[in-house]
Amino acid sequence: MTRRLLAGAFAALGAAVTLAGCGSEPDAPAGDQVNAAAVSWAEQVCASVGSGGDTLSELPAFNPEQPDATRDGLVTYLESMSAALSDVADTITAAGTPPVEGGGATVEQAMETISTEREALESAKTTLTKAEITDEASFQQAISEVRTAFDELSSADGPLKDLKTNPELNEAIGRASACQGLDTGA
Fold it and tell me: Which residues constitute the signal peptide according to the record (predicted)?
């Protein structure tokens, strides 16, 4: 059981890294036009992503001797992950359509990614909440299902990957100071 719990913890860390991801691109050659409004938009979004990643970097305690507490900690952590994704979605919504060609469609795709990731988290949380703690086998099954959700999240590149498919937003993300120093992968 300990091995599965630790594997789940490492998968959770991968999901947190995914949420925190926002890589930078090299500076453009001198003379290129910079879309300052798009950079400002990216600043807002990356600040939210960075804040969510900071929140999720502290994993819950795993103690196989206290499965109730372990489950409660994991449920709380899943709730935190979902809330962090909601905050990113709220920030994107508040920031409005990015001032770039095709910005609306790009944001729509990012929001779909966030929705899919939140659904996976909610499903994992429900499974874990309903797990029979008195039955170690069912608890291990729930942990296994939660790990599957984390594996799916850690293999996804998050909403910033969707945003970076737009060349102007990709450049803005590369120039936004809030995006600098965040891990790549999104």
Answer: 1-20
Nearest CA-CA partner of 168 in 7, 4, 33, 18: 33
Residue 173 lies in a domain: yes
Cβ count within 10 A of residue 155: 11
Longest dimension (CA), the chain: 67
Residue 2 lies in a domain: no
Distance CA 46, CA 24 (A): 11
CB contact at 8 A, 111 and 85: no
Amino acid at 127: T
Integer distance in angstroms from the first to the last C-alpha of the chain?
32
pLDDT in tens, 99-134: 999 999 999 999 999 998 898 888 888 888 887 777
The domain of 110 spans 35-57+65-179
- What is the tens place of the pLDDT at every residue in 81-107? 889 999 999 999 999 999 999 999 999
CA distances from 11 to 114, 149, 152, 153 (A): 18, 9, 9, 9
CB atoms < 10 A from the CB of 103, how many? 18
Q: How many domains does the chain contain in total?
A: 1
